[in-house]
């Protein structure tokens, strides 16, 4: 895993020995610097999917920390650079705290504001141009060398450390949790990941790396100006090297920097006087080329081409393995009316503007039962689920889990108390294996990565997907993806499992198989609440129904009672059918 990184850095160092032209040597320093800055962007945006257009904020703060501390307090950059990292990390936290309230495009655009604001603040403070003094007599003490190759080796050392750290992180529980956030933030919360805390840690680490490398860059160029460190081109450069090379992989920013930095620098040297800002043109063109030819970056394009070549070989053209045969269902007794309640919902209400999505809903889920929460479209089922699960706070009412009031508790805290959930829309990582997709579900239970793997394997076997555990999720059918989603919820070993329209869009044989899987899970002692708007599969699965209509409980009872209930028939089919049922 680390050998390719070592070989690359060693090769780069050896190559540098033969470069004597100082301009080319500067380019050789800039490549690792921009690769590290790209890695910092990749850590936040590539790993979590939260796109940042404002990474220059950290870079610039780092550059100014080193420059101002050197000029004003005589602090050596050897200490200034770690300090720049600290400043970058703290500013990451300060920026993350308010900005993580936003999502998607809004987050990306809000990030734009920070470097622009900082640019003007530093202009206003009068730091138009801070030059680092040259101290030739004690160069080592102040990180000033006449031989440029020393800078190359230092930058390379930093790049090596950053790449190794990222590689190790990718395979750690932390990396696994970041992957889960990128996949589906709500689902990550539901499997017990404290997404807000994790995102704050990540932006702090990313900011620290960007700050430190901004500080190192200041030492190389010896002059810091607001435009040069907070400017739009700086943020764009971090984003472009990562996107061009490949987002979400340590090699992406390195490939991007290796191609784009020498190209930009050479064109700048040749044509900079005639076409000012030629580097911006190079980066803009690179983005367009990537969008057209390799939307996920060069690294993934090459990986895909290699995979396709291997897959083209006849030996690999095997049919997907047959699904595992599930062990026979253990005999399961539906709990009686006096069974203890695992979940009690009391007078739950929630409105959105004028829409009363859920109004005064009360019901009980008995330990060990399979309860169906049904109702026609718009009846309030999903809102009720989100209220149980902590995604939506109720206007009134309580949710009691084992008698404990858990109303409004964050989903990740509820998950830690044993509540698992699946989502209707499955968003898998197509390139990742089934096991890697499921692994985030084990986060809540596992003490280390080994235990997470064991729980993952167990959960995948429980749903009968064991034969496909190492297959890429992108090769799975819609049904297998549903099973994978179920396995992810089971990997946290929940006591109470909330299933959201698990049968939607499945054919008859698939429904049969899924019924068998859910029955088996219930037979193993897991209490199941399932929402659906169709009745036909549910009547053969659930012990009891709660029917919602217009946000309120319409009826409650055994399947036979509910299917014969004229009010339920009317809610589903209209007054005409309801009247017929009554007659
Ligand atoms: N975030 C929201 N903002 C505004 N209205 C909402 C919101 N969420 C739900 N609603 C409204 O609340 C009502 C209940 O919606 P909900 O999604 O809970 O119903 P449902 O029974 O799950 O429906 P379906 O089977 O179609 O998913 C609907 O009228 C819906 O438009």
UniProtKB/TrEMBL annotation:
InterPro entries registered for this protein in UniProt: AAA+_ATPase, ABC_AA/LPS_Transport, ABC_transp_permease, ABC_transporter-like_ATP-bd, BCA_ABC_TP_C, LivM-like, P-loop_NTPase
Domain ABC transporter: 343-575
Compartments, as annotated in UniProt: Cell membrane
Membrane topology: Multi-pass membrane protein
Domain of life: Bacteria
TM ranges: 26-44, 56-75, 81-100, 107-126, 150-169, 200-224, 236-261, 273-294
Keywords: ATP-binding, Cell membrane, Membrane, Nucleotide-binding, Transmembrane, Transmembrane helix, Transport
Molecular-function GO term, any one: ATP binding
Protein name: Branched-chain amino acid ABC transporter ATP-binding protein/permease
Gene3D superfamilies in the cross-refs: P-loop containing nucleotide triphosphate hydrolases
